[in-house]
Design a protein that fits this description.
heterodimer, A: about 55 residues, mainly alpha, rod-shaped, B: about 575 residues, Cytochrome C Oxidase, Chain A, two-stranded antiparallel sheet, about 70% helix, globular, binds protoporphyrin IX containing FE, binds copper (II) ion
Chain lengths: ~55, ~575
Amino acid sequence: MQRNEHQESNQEEEPVPGMQQLLDNPFMLLFLGVLFPTVFYILWGIMEIISIPAVK
Amino acid sequence: MAANMFRQCPDSGLFFHKSAESLMKAHAVFGVVYLLLGGFLGLLVALTRMPSLHILNAEDFYLALSIHGTAILIFWIIFFEMAVLYFASSTLLRSRPATPGIGWVGFLLMVIGSTLVMVAFFRGNSSVMFTSYVPMPAEPIFYLGLILFAVGALIGCFIFLATLVVAKQEKTYDGSIPLVTFGALTATIIAIFTIASGAVILIPTWLWSLGFISHIDPLMYRTVWWALGHSSQQINVAAHVSIWYAIAAIIFGAKPMSEKVSRTAFLLYILFLQLASAHHILADPGVSSTWKVFNTSYAMYLAVLASMVHGLTVPGCIEVAQRKKGFNNGLFEWLKKAPWANPVFSAMFISLIIFGFIGGITGVVMGTEQINLIIHNTIFVPGHFHATVAVGTTMAFMAITYFLIPVLFRRQLIWPNACKWQPYLFGGGMLILSLFLLGAGTLGVPRRHWDINFSDAALQFQFAGTAITMMGIAGLGGFLAAMGGALFCLIAVGSLVFGKRLDPGASLFSSFGFPMAASCYNIERPGKLGLAPVEQTGDGGIQAKGTFVLALVFLAAFVVYFFINAKYLSSIWPMG
Ligand code: HEM
Ligand SMILES: [Cu+2]
């Protein structure tokens, strides 16, 4: 858990890769982490349940 | 900034903020209380399900089962997870926690909520088990308690996110957040989805119990409830995997084999793990196979892939670290020479192995739509999840507790010998319980069933003798596990009260959530957390030969077990 205290970043100028930008952005991750299960599990699931025809 | 708010632990070098550490302690201690209560009732449940003992009557059995599931699965684990969140944000980022006052409001809500649920249970009219499926009614305070508890936990999640923001603004660290904090972030994200789903279904159910809503559709309830019930288990997975990484670093100084790979694996959790909630609905009519198969196969395998990545990289990084220290002989010297008498390591490693080999393999196999039908609602299912949540999660939490008692609470552990073998007692008992529940379930023994001998039933049914025997052995394993669990609680609480003080400022009160003596906090602002050393890329994978062999054994076990089940399925429904 200890990290080097002194090492300074010498890569300041390099552009940050897109994947790392995503991984460094907690709120984007939160958005995706709520979006995926809400769409694929909850909304899709509920749509199937409410489209079951009622007994006549 | 007037007062100094931080102290540095001289043994670990970690920095603790006064308010954050009090919150960690209070949550962790309250969690252990629920572990003790839930564990005791687990013992009664296990002894009742042992056909030869069958100690409780039907009514008490369902009460005990309801309390066991709720107290241990929800309250113990989530209280402890809140402590982990404060640790992973404030301590690991060397940051002040955001709004600690509101943190105490969250804590209080969790205490009040969980107490209300317990009151509802003990009044006797809410033995609905932790799933509380409608239309089985519980008292309104049961649902209200769950809702308050969830709001409290949600507050904890937002404080975690806010602390990330504070740490970034105040530049307490360079570069990205550490991997362990990233894992905790994963847990937080899943928790927020979990709690939101819980609100969507439990608030209407509460109103229904009060008579304001006339009807709640059971399938709708089950579908949305499992977004809560399943995802909450994935909070645990993310949390205990983070703890594995933390302990690998603490004990071995091990660095992740690849930060990028491990973080990407956590990302797969964030995106896909929660979809697998659908495996709880596999036997329900009314939702299509397309929905079931998409959510439990295509999507879930990506999350399973992530677990296998963690399961490989954690022992892998330990192996690399050990080999660097010279334990280089053969495939497994690194593992043989690991500190097996140190409960921080042994509990963590047992957690990893049993979670992967038993929890993981049975989980994937029974998550297959067709095979699920063999074991749906049998005691196989508790067999599976005691491997995941009682060994995987609970033992990881036990492991980190052994580390935190000296470091956070500043107390020496009492009973060093008992500490050495407690993980083996609990882990061994759980292993027996799990394996024999899995076996009995495969023979059709149902879960949540008071009397499989049907002594007072109108219709008789006789289970195979082996099934009855296996339930007996499982009860024995449960007894051992309960002893191991009780020993853990004794060691933890005993150390907090009687353990030697490692710091003169540690008092009885400071063991239970109050700050230590003011003089302990002598740092205004810890030094900035530096960048992680640049990765040694390339040869890590080849260095970890032993882990690679373990992975092959794992895959072989997986394939064999899958085909045994497929074969079994074909004999239940003969083809052609
Ligand atoms: C202390 C030792 C423990 C023993 C002896 C034990 C025993 C059992 C048994 C025999 C069952 C099956 C009951 C049935 O379906 O009829 C059960 C259910 C369960 N256990 Fe445990 N268990 C223990 C610890 C734990 C732990 C540590 C956890 C989680 C962290 C846990 C979570 C659960 C849950 C969620 C259920 C399902 C309850 C339900 O179906 O409503 N148990 N336990
Ligand atoms: Cu699940």
